[in-house]
Amino acid sequence: MLTNDRIGAVILLAFSIGYGILIYDIPLLPFQAASAFTAQTLPKALSILGIILSLILLVTSRNQATPDIAGFKWLNGVLICILMLIYGFSVRPVGFLISTSLFLILSEYTLGERRRNILIFSTIPVVLFFWYLMSELLGVYVAPLPEFLMDMLK
Questions:
Q1: Each residue's pLDDT tens digit, 76-131
Q2: Whole-angstrom Cα distance, residue 91 to residue 93?
Q3: 3 state DSSP class of 27
Q4: What share of the chain is helix, strand, coil (3-state, %, to 5)?
Q5: What does the buried/exposed string (b/e) look like for 58-67 if buried means 16 or more CB atoms within 10 Å of the residue's CB?
Q6: Sequential DSSP letters for 36-84
């Protein structure tokens, strides 16, 4: 029987399998091949965990609720997908800080949040924290601003 839980489990299973297949595209340096922990280790663990949890949900689900799609806000879902596409193409030219902030603010607005304080103060600190985490703590360079602004600041 097609239920809400089983639909979610199948979607999670498909995503986890696809993610697991794409992990092997992550390049490893020659000296990393014999290492216990590489750039592929955590993604592999997440993929396996996702597959196991989705199979458990698929097999053990007792929820009998059938999907009711009449109340879905399809336009909001489509707008969020469009925003994700625009975000993906704009991160490099616009910079992480601006594009991620705009993406989150516009996504929250699309989902119904209208209070400016919430829109700004729930996104800007998060974006700054993740940029700091990636660039300073993890050592992954992420361009914070567009190139022309970076040149002006130098």
A1: 999 999 999 999 999 888 989 999 999 999 999 999 999 999 999 999 999 999 89
A2: 6
A3: coil
A4: 70, 0, 30
A5: beebeeeeee
A6: SS-TTHHHHHHHHHHHHHHHHHHHH----PPP--TT--HHHHHHHHHHH
The string of pLDDT tens digits covering residues 58-84 is: 888 887 777 777 778 889 999 999 999
Tokens of 31: 């000296």
Output the CA–CA distances (angstroms, integers) from residue 103 to 41, 54, 130, 131, in the order listed: 30, 29, 14, 15
Alpha-carbon distance of 108 to 120, in angstroms, equals: 10
Residue whose tokens read 């196991």: 52
> Rounded to whole angstroms, how far apart are CA atoms 81 and 47?
23
